[in-house]
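Form 12-C: Joint structure prediction
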Amino acid sequence: MIIKGGVVYDPANGIYGEEMDLCLEGGRIVEETGEKDVIDARGLMVMPGGVDAHSHIAGPKINSGRIMRPDDSRMGVEPRTGVCRPCTGYTVPNCYAIGYRYARMGYTTAFEAATPIIESRHTHEELEEIPILDKGALTLFGSNWTVMECVKENDLAKLAAYVAWGLKSSRGYGVKIVNPGGGEAWGFGANVKGLHDPVPNFDVTPAEIIKGLARANEMLRLPHSIHLHFNNLGKPGNYTTALETLDLLKDIKASRMRQVVHIAHMQFSAYGGTGWRDFDSKAPEIADYMNKNNHATMDLGQILFGSATTMTADAPLEYANARLLHQKWSNCDIELEESSGVVPIFYARMMPVNAIQWAIGLELALLTKDPWKVLLTTDNPNGSPFVNYPEVIALLMSQAKRAEEISRVHELVTKRTALPSIEREMDWSEIAIMTRSASARILGLEDKGHLGPGADADVAVYDIRPDEVDPSVDHALVKKAFTTARYTIKGGVLVARDGQIVAAPQGRTYWVDAEVPQADTERMMADLKDKFEKYYSVRLGNYMVQDEYLSRPQVVRAGTRARVEVAQ
Amino acid sequence: MIEDVICSFCGCLCDDLRVEVEEGKVAKVRGACRLGASKIMGHDRIAAPMIRQKGELVEVSYQEAYDRAAEILAAARRPLLYGWASTVNEAHQKGILLGEEVGGVVDSTATVCHGPSILGIEEKGLAGATLGQVKNRADVIVFWGCNPSEAHPRHALRYSSNACGKFTAEGRSCKKVIVVDVRRTRTARNADQFLQIQPGTDYEIICALRMLVAGKDDLLADEICGIQKADLVKVAQTLKNARFGALFFGLGLTHSRGRYKNVDNALSLVAELNAFTKFVVMTMRGHYNVAGIGQVLAWESGFPMSVDFSRGAPYFNPGETSAADLLGRKEADAALIIAADPAANMPRAAVEWLAKIPVIQIDPFENPTTLLAEVVIPSAIAGVEVDGTAYRMDGMALRMRKLVETSFHSDKEILQGILDSLRRLKDDN
Ligand code: SF4
Ligand SMILES: [Zn+2]
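Section 2 - Result
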């Protein structure tokens, strides 16, 4: 296939809006091709397929959301077609809707942000049913008994062996840490209050857990860094926890060319104030930190007004949400590993807190100078469903649109945030970075997020003529164009044209197989076997996700051995 | 000897069984309760596919059975695809696809057991936990309207009232067990406090407990539906003083007066208890994978049961699109029944109508539904002869093992066979 005459944005390769042809063959971008298939993209914007590095798309949490929200499943209903299975849902769509809707927006990859090891079989069952997209899942380690014990014993090699085993067991891609220690404390209805508050019964602190896992992550040379949801997330005044945690990781060396920590949905951790009454934005402080330091990246977790469903392994937070909002509440504690919760929410323009949250996300994006450090996400569906990414794009590209919106939200936004005074308007390249190139780089997906030879043939063509459109003024057009790609090509196959799904191939699932010294694994397994005998409700022999659950696995190799080689 | 075998009988999904296979047959089952052992040992099978001709079931080939089943489904205007509780997710997925293609209603046996629980969860959400969490932490266990001693024999020892775990090392002796039921069941014998309530008063009793938990003692009468206030005060105190409490409920709650409102009320009680301590709640699911069909339907259609595909897109309105109602209203004009026995478990009006419409039965075993089936397709036993995924009552996904070979087709293969015949039929027209 040849995509002819497009205006290509491929920031990873230093291409910022150049007219050129793209050749696709065998699922890859190639220098040239004999294939006759031509897509006419003359004058239209061409980007790598979108990559979402943090989204809740599969597993027990989202399915609980579906089950407790029939009201949501009644929205977004689309009957089946010759190509498509039927669709339902808005904030918690069914699997098919997830695949088609991402593809319609020009996205071709999405990673599930949190799966407990023991629940991963379920997560993969759902990932398998999501059409078109390449995907992966980050595995939760932050409240895990074995992790905490290794940290307590200060046995880093054993911890690394466990992380490698946990990734393999869950067929997971990276190390996710959510409110470290809090999930365990929640087992008896408590929480950890800060970085140095010991986890009850385990005598380790969140700070120690985070540092331990970050070190193990680098020891294993994992493609992605630790992916961290801070303690105290969602609470007024929590920006101090955020900054303190970031400082904690400053001296850790990355084993690859990437960040040491990726911060999940920064918006929810950039809060000032002592309570909801004097709640205000500390986005400028966070952005300032990000501008001065280079060891961290983040995704926004932008909220948008309207319906959303909050779901997180931060179970105490969900309980607090349910109480605060008088909402229905689902919870699931997961033996020896985690906890989690789900609560529906509606963000209202005239609610001061919601309006300020909305502004904080935008401030973070606009005040952080380097777009490679900031991913555009809504922590789908916590801040808003992913289908609303184009709204965020339009807001970032147009001060006029922001001013219009600010006039329609609670007036406290002008007092408690810096948003009204921010003039920056992002350009096409910056949007391309925040929605695909940086996401792929941060995840460590070498063949994604760019269009160089050898890259996956995942391409989006948008109905935008960059030389004719002024996004500052034509923001409605920008939003429309990013909502419905003219063409989405996944693995060299045209999957969506003008919003219509024309093919729905099965995507791949990435997971990381990290090698560790046999002796470490043996030491680790001795303890682990004991846990299975005494504490788990599932036998060790039935625990690990079987190969049957990944029809198209994409194994990424890592491990401690490779690190030694590099060191020599 | 095959280790770590998962039992395919009840929602406990015990995964620590050992099975001896001799000459391709299950010879011994170790570690299971008698219910599980007898299921795995197996009993009389339907020998071959059959089609009813002049009132008699006559043996045919699988292919003939598929073709006939496809004809029935293709001719139907409102087909019902019902059952699914005793087979694996892989079959559910094929069944849902078939349901989409014939524009049918896909419903599970949940509608006649824990359907009200699902409606309750839609109202209030579910504060749950995995069973291992309960085992390791719970010091207060409540069984409400359920009788695990008979229905889930290993529940107590593996997961709940008698289990030992990290923070419950002394097992039963470090726990308080409360049983609420209309009868003194075998489970009640294990209780520290047994509350024998009058039938149909669950809702009132839960309301009283919620008031007590909220500290509104003085508003309560001395006796509530025949129960002394003092007894309820004692229960409420036990609940509030728990370090970790777990409420398990069964059909006694979902099928007594109040139905899903009882569940709503119980879920609210548990949510409110979390202001004082840690408390979780769980439904005691009966068939081993009735939880699985709810999960699969939810991720594939957005709804956990009673999904109507006649509009091309999923539509869910329990009471209208649930199997018993569809049959009771004489609306369904054909039914595919898989891994279930509605003839024994549905309301009479529904069964009477089922006897009048063409029924396709897919099951390893003969049961009362066989008597009214027009096409009978014997299947391999999932979890014994076929591997695949099942969900425990707490939502834990496990992979059932294949223990022995079989010449019977699996549920998934059968559904695919019918789908293929159906597609050929459509192409011909
Ligand atoms: S308790 Fe249930 S799952 Fe366990 S062995 Fe008995 S029947 Fe099987
Ligand atoms: Zn998230």
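Section 3 - Comments
The pocket of iron/sulfur cluster (ligand 1) is lined by residues B 7, 9-10, 12-14, 32-33, 35-36, 152-154 (CB under 6 Å). Residues 27 and 493 of chain A are 8 Å apart (CA to CA).
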